[in-house]
Amino acid sequence: MAAGPPVMEALGRLWQVEAPLGSGSSAAVYQARCLGDPRAPPAAVKEFLPAASGRGSPGEGGGADYGFRKEREALEELRGHRNIVTLYGVFTNCASAKGPSYCLLLELLDVSVSELLVHSSQHGCSMWVTQHCARDILEALAFLHHKGYVHADLKPRNILWSPEEECFKLIDFGLSFKEGNQDVKYIQTDGYRAPEAELQNYLSKAGVQGGTECTSAVDLWSLGIVLLEMFSGMKLKHIVQSQEWRVNNSAIIDHIFASKSVVNSAIPAYHLRDLLKSMLHDDQEKRATATKALCSPFFSIPFAPHIEDLVMLPTPVLRLLNILSDNSLYCEEEFEDIMDDIREECCKYGQIVSLFVPKENPGKGHVFVEYANAVNSKAAQRALTGKRFDGKFVVATFYPLSAYKRGYLYQTLF
């Protein structure tokens, strides 16, 4: 795609390729926007590279055409679930310099759990984010497992945040298969691979035929490792591949939780620990299902987001701090003048749906700006952060639209 024109036709519209988002051995992903319709949201284009066509056999998961068909079929059958990336449509890019290539037009998502882990490597993710991710992805797994699918490549890079729907979504179904019909032998990624998949891969490399096929339980193992990394702030690849882990992973999980300082009561951490142990059972028959995991008491505990969460996870609502003093809050004339200035400045970045300033705690003096979409709020956040307003430096974070609509203001943890 890079060698050809940066414009392609898809679903009766022209799409301008704006930026690369990632690439693998058989596909590349780009951000694109619709030309001629400024109201259309940007999208992601996953192009299956023609040069990769024919590599390997279908049973080995090779071939871009085969990968395209697999992912298309899975996404079409799983379409409509809130926590699974939405497929808008499919098309052929005839402008590719290497020949026609198959493409998926997908909803554009934002920050990945992999990126969140980079930013939280010293202290781990907040319980709010960890619980949010756990619930969202377990909901996705419960749905796709009910449909008979195994994702087979669950890892931090394949869990992305949706700014518009304020939830985490599962992406990349290139290795997925129907349970009982496993057509890909080498599944999952190092560090997130279940013991039974590890054994299957070893036997396949050794040329040993037969053995049992992997089940949906492999996805629960992978998610358990992801959540343990989010809680601990550590990459666990070397730990989960160690002999100590194989002998007694429960003791290692206990050690991680015992050594991690947890804000607020330790009881929620124990609930999370027990949940992860149930997902990381060596015996796949004893491993918790996604539906059972969702019944954990961990999900009944309310958490508040940290300030880092509201900086990292975009939403359509922007929260501006360090703008209004107590005097300006209660002087009606001065307050109206400042609000007019704020509204004028914020309108530069997109359509404003509502603007609200609480005059009592929690949230006293914070300015909440609801935009028509998260694209506008992200532009405003980038432009306004650190900007001087009335002699003060502005701090701009995002804020959950769902909480804002309910009139619920978090006492945010810093």
TrEMBL record:
Signal sequence residues: none
GO biological process terms on file: neuron projection development; positive regulation of translational initiation; regulation of cell cycle; regulation of protein export from nucleus
Domain Protein kinase: 15-299
InterPro entries: Kinase-like_dom_sf, Nucleotide-bd_a/b_plait_sf, Prot_kinase_dom, Protein_kinase_ATP_BS, RBD_domain_sf, RRM_dom, UHMK1
PROSITE patterns: PROTEIN_KINASE_ATP (PS00107), PROTEIN_KINASE_DOM (PS50011)
Key words of the record: ATP-binding, Nucleotide-binding
Binding site for ATP: K46
Molecular function (Gene Ontology), one example: ATP binding
Cellular component annotations (GO), alphabetically ordered: axon; dendrite cytoplasm; neuronal ribonucleoprotein granule; nucleoplasm
Chain coiled-coil ranges: none
Protein name: U2AF homology motif kinase 1
Organismal lineage: Eukaryota, Metazoa, Chordata, Craniata, Vertebrata
